[in-house]
Specification:
Blueprint lengths: L3 H13 L9 H7 L5 E5 L3 H12 L5 H14 L20 E6 L5 E7 L5 H11 L4 E3 H10 L10 H13 L20 E6 L5 E7 L20 E4 L3 E7 L1 H7 L1 H10 L4 H15 L8 E7 L4 E5 L5 E5 L4 E5 L1 E2 L5
Helix pairs in contact: 3-4, 4-5, 8-10, 9-10
Bound molecules: N-hydroxy-L-asparagine (SD4).
N-hydroxy-L-asparagine binds next to strand 8.
Protein name: N4-(Beta-N-acetylglucosaminyl)-L-asparaginase
InterPro entries: Ntn_hydrolases_N (IPR029055), Peptidase_T2 (IPR000246)
Pfam family, one: Asparaginase_2
């Protein structure tokens, strides 16, 4: 993202060359400043996902196609054990997936508790485009996917089966951990992605295998429109990662977008939504929550509850990971 310093440098050069007829107010220039197209997504698995999305965005494609293509990367990657194929199973050893997608017009599609399908985000898109509904779940969602050409696949990998067996033997309890350096020990990490294309269309997607060893039948925030993801094409979009129950109780992504509607920057809006959790949820210190947000003009930001939440960014000026500021600062 362009820093204020580089903005000042650029705008000084710009002002010198502005004729009377093209004169802009500083506030208009500030608004015009963010760089489009842009894609942002949660955690470091967002890096390859952004690259895939960028292939579409860089060719002036539609951000809906970009976010779908982007999040399909970790969905298909067995090394990403918190999304799609190779995801950590629930307490019964079943991989159950949640996903949703939203376009700039406010159309939305979602699937919850979907089994055996590698790309739940694409099923969610079909729910949005082909049905009069927003959300399908469980067996109905599976039937819909199969009827639309998706194949039934085995999503539980050998490694995950081994890990689940070990958990069953040793722990048998649901214990979300905050951030884990060692990917093999990871127990949550949804991919949420937001993108604005060169025509200014803002879309988002979110997909996950949910919290590790969750109760069978549990659905998190990720497929809930307004919780795991919300997009208002006239304002901006927001998406979440972390303990879904806390996001659901505060309808986090919707809240972030409403704060942006009222004039907050994306980062400030994310911070306020984290503060709402701090205020309302007594055991918030035992959880991680990360929000990312993107304005329709391409300004982005993030904020988390605990330190250690990073998000991936790609536009014409920057490619890489950024660490979000956190409410509970590092010691
Ligand atoms: C959920 N929010 O199911 C998801 C889990 C997650 O990183 O990973 N977030 O609650």
């Amino acid at each position: 993202m362009v820093t204020r310093r580089s903005f000042i440098t650029k705008s000084t050069i710009g002002i010198a060359g502005i004729s009377a007829s093209t004169k802009m107010f500083a506030s208009e220039m500030w608004k015009a400043e963010p760089c489009k197209p842009v894609v942002i997504s949660t955690w470091n698995h967002g890096l390859p996902a952004n690259e895939e999305a960028w292939k579409i965005l860089a060719g002036n494609g539609y951000s809906l196609d970009a976010v779908e293509a982007g999040v399909r990367v970790p969905e298909a990657d067995p090394e990403v054990i918190t999304v799609g194929y190779g995801g950590i199973p629930d307490a019964k050893g079943k991989v159950t997936l949640d996903a949703c997608i939203m376009n700039e017009k406010g159309d939305a599609g979602s699937v919850a508790y979907l089994q055996h399908i590698m790309h739940p985000v694409s099923v969610a898109r079909l729910v949005m485009e082909k049905t009069p509904h927003v959300m399908l779940s469980g067996k109905g969602a599976l039937k819909f996917a199969l009827a639309n050409g998706f194949e039934k696949e085995k999503l539980l990998t050998h490694d995950m089966r081994k890990r689940w067996k070990k958990w069953k033997k040793e722990k048998r309890e649901f214990s979300p951990k905050i951030n884990i350096e060692n990917q093999l020990e990871e127990n949550h990490d949804t991919i949420s992605m937001l993108a604005v294309d060169s025509d200014g269309r803002l879309c988002g997607a979110c997909t996950t295998s949910g919290m590790a060893f969750k109760m069978h039948g549990r659905v998190g925030d990720s497929p809930i429109i307004g919780a795991g993801l919300f997009v208002d094409g006239e304002v901006g979009g927001a998406a979440a990662t972390g303990s879904g129950e806390l996001v659901m109780k505060t309808l986090g992504s919707f809240l972030v977008v409403e704060f942006m509607r009222n004039g907050m920057s994306p980062a400030k809006a994310c911070e306020e939504a984290v503060k709402r959790i701090v205020k309302k949820v007594p055991d918030y210190e035992n959880h991680q929550i990360g929000y990312i947000a993107l304005s329709k003009s391409g300004e982005y930001g993030a904020f988390s509850l605990q330190p250690g939440f990073d998000y991936a960014v790609k536009n014409h000026e920057f490619t890489g990971l950024k660490e979000a500021e956190a409410w509970l600062k590092k010691l």
